[in-house]
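Quick check before the chapter quiz. The format below is the same one you will see on the exam, so make sure you can read both the input and the output lines.
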Amino acid sequence: MKIVELDGYAANPGDLSWEPLKQLGELTLYDRTPPELVVERAKEADAILINKISIDEKILAQLPRLRYIGVLATGYNAVDVEAAARRGIVVTNIPAYSTDSVAQMVFAHILNITNRTAHYARQAREGRWSSNPDFCYWDTPLIELSGKTLGIVGFGNIGKSVAAIARQFGMDVFAYTSKNSTDLPEGVQKTTLEGLFATSDILSLHCPLTPQTKHLINAEALAKMKQGSILINTGRGPLVDEQAVADALASGHLLAYGADVMADEPPKADNPLFQQPNAFITPHIAWATFEARQRLMDICVANLRAFIEGKPQNVVN
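Here is the expected output.
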């Protein structure tokens, strides 16, 4: 079997091993592949592995040997899965590999916003504390999480993990979810989206990106949120209207925005959020802990092995 990995650098910049994949076939590795080279590099492949490369029907029509597409991510919107199914091409993804790491990043953002640890560590290094007349100082609001309300939009694996952490901080947790109230963990209450907007001190987004959820957080939604609330997005960038969020930050209605995802990745340098000091953006790294990427690689290998053995798993089409 000829296997081609078209954009392997993000998942494995060199600290993990490709050897288990090499044991399954003839493996060709590319760190990155520009769109114009996808067909050329994949034309002899029986299986391709991708992360963010777009594979549409036009490309599939030029890959007659292709029988398998392994997406090295949970989201698989980069692939036209229906077109692949029509051609008998199996598409798999990697679910739940980064749940704990993403939940950790949610609270990294929350704690950075409420305690401003990066801000004070930087000021201490620059001598601000050394020159202070008192034993301590603060020049930002410092916020205790206990007793605050966390609203969660979407209650899959990550939303559930975030809720469990929040409960340990003594937070009240509400969720907007299709699940029945009786299926939610103890301490998590189901409510409407309007209810989340009205009551959440912190709102965290964990729903999939669909035509219905694109710009779920827009100017109208932000206006319904509590004055001085915090918005966290580790889901998908287009869940929010970034200009509307920037405007809400500028007006002070939104206290802070913590995000690990953006509508365009990499983002344009003139993105309006970069002009807002209370927008804290990390470069899509919540999934990228060593532990999560090792799980990703392990499941990637297991998915391809299962396909070769005629028992495909984690099939999305």
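If your answer matched, good. Residues 4 and 28 are 5 Å apart (CA to CA).
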